[in-house]
Amino acid sequence: MRKDIVDILACPMDKSPLELSIDEANGDEVIQGMLTCSKCGEKYPIEDRIPNLLPPEMRAGSTNQQKG
């Protein structure tokens, strides 16, 4: 995910701005990190350059389906 895209993203739960924390980057590209809602505190992972903005209950279901 490009670092500058965080400016147009919003929390799917309450539409508040997201804050970016970076674990691994390559130039302007975030490879691993986290997006955190500034209002509700929900966290959305960034893995392999892809932000997972699914609501928490849907994220848990998609992870279990992939493992099963």
What do these coordinates show?
With 68 residues, this protein is α+β, with helices and mostly antiparallel strands. The chain has one domain. Helices cover 18% and strands 37% of the residues. It has 1 helix and 4 strands. It has one helix at 56-67, and strands at residues 18-26, 29-37, 43-47, 50-51. A 4-stranded antiparallel β-sheet has the order 1-2-3-4, with no helix packed on it. Strand 1 and strand 2 form a beta hairpin. The longest helix has 12 residues, at 56-67. It is globular and about 30 Å long. The model is unreliable at 63-68 (pLDDT under 50).
Write a short abstract of this structure.
With 68 residues, this protein is an alpha+beta fold.
Secondary structure topology:
Blueprint: E1 18-26, E2 29-37, E3 43-47, E4 50-51, H1 56-67
Antiparallel strand pairs: 1-2, 2-3, 3-4
Could you name the key traits of this structure?
disordered C terminus, 4-stranded antiparallel beta sheet, alpha+beta, 68 residues
Q: How many domains comprise the coordinates?
A: 1
Which structural category fits the helices and strands? alpha+beta
Average pLDDT for all residues = 88
| Major β-sheet profile | 4 strands, antiparallel
Series of H and E elements: EEEEH
| Number of beta strands | 4
